């Protein structure tokens, strides 16, 4: 009887309550069960945000339409006005709490408004917000040293930027200068940024404008789920060698790739791919660039950097997002020899490495180590993946569950054999999960993959809540 009442509360067209009533059940942690599906309850959390007195969601939306670029989109039929955040939770204008399963697109690493990161930012802001790297300041040097200590081999020279796009642009420029070659090879379905060079390296039409992008080659994606060679990484790698042989002069500047494609739908590379590709690229005189913008800083759990899972050491590593826990910060790390290429002319970044951002970055590194967040990403991420895989056994709608740590993807399909993307279904499930208090992202070329990239402080209770919300949403499809 209790299950029937809950169903009518949330789903019934003629019910005496709206979806918000069900949301309140979740907020009040009422434990119900219906047809074997656990109705999710919000895990307890000892924080209440201060009252919000700013403009409403409708007022903000009106201003966005009038004054912001029309290219800026928003999630959900009814967009959220988020005004407060604490660790793995976000709060809307009414004080309602949401579990953040997206982490600001894999950006919030330590947790929203982590006290130690906030303290570092505030203390530095009180003393010096900005000068220029033309003067000395210990914060940028301290952070560069700490960052270099987390990388293998001779990767120890750091150049700070403001974003992942800037970092990837600079990495490709360095590769061209150092090698004297022009051609760049990237992987289909990848995303590396939205500036001139990075848009060329990006390999999804939705992110590419009709502008000239020369010297870029896109290799077959080593996708174990949709790829033509399954999980045979070495077969995919042969395509890179053929690009070198047939599409270039035989010499290339660089190969750039994500360890796990983020925007592309949390696609892991087939095992053995990077070692074979790196060998081909280096024989052709090129450098190997690892784009760690989303997978870096312990997010994958088993390693601090995503590329480590394939047992390779890149020549250049780019990073952003989780590096600053939400502060605009990026970096390029390379060897002393390769870094010398930038000294041939003057190269400068006004805001890259400013005191406030680097103070935040140093605090983030310390928190990740102190709180053992990489270990938590492995333990809780593995648990979450197991729970999601169990849902795959339950619902034909789920075609694939993949990823590592807190970089997980759930691909929805209307036909498992044909792998037909479930584009409308994912929007429905996503919206219903939001009503239950769970926020997750979506991506993939077809827009049919849930991107689950929460703050690294996510708990098993949070994982259970997320999966229960997805379970209940899918049970009503």
UniProtKB/TrEMBL annotation:
From the UniProt record, list the reaction(s) this protein catalyses.
glyoxylate + L-alanine = glycine + pyruvate
Family annotation (PANTHER family):
ALANINE--GLYOXYLATE AMINOTRANSFERASE 2-LIKE (PTHR45688:SF13), PTHR45688
Provide the Gene Ontology terms for cellular component.
mitochondrion
Q: Which PROSITE patterns match?
A: AA_TRANSFER_CLASS_3
The coenzyme or cofactor needed here is: pyridoxal 5'-phosphate
Sorted alphabetically, the Gene Ontology BP terms of this entry are: photorespiration
Q: From which source organism is this entry? A: Quillaja saponaria (Soap bark tree)
The protein's name in its UniProt record: alanine--glyoxylate transaminase
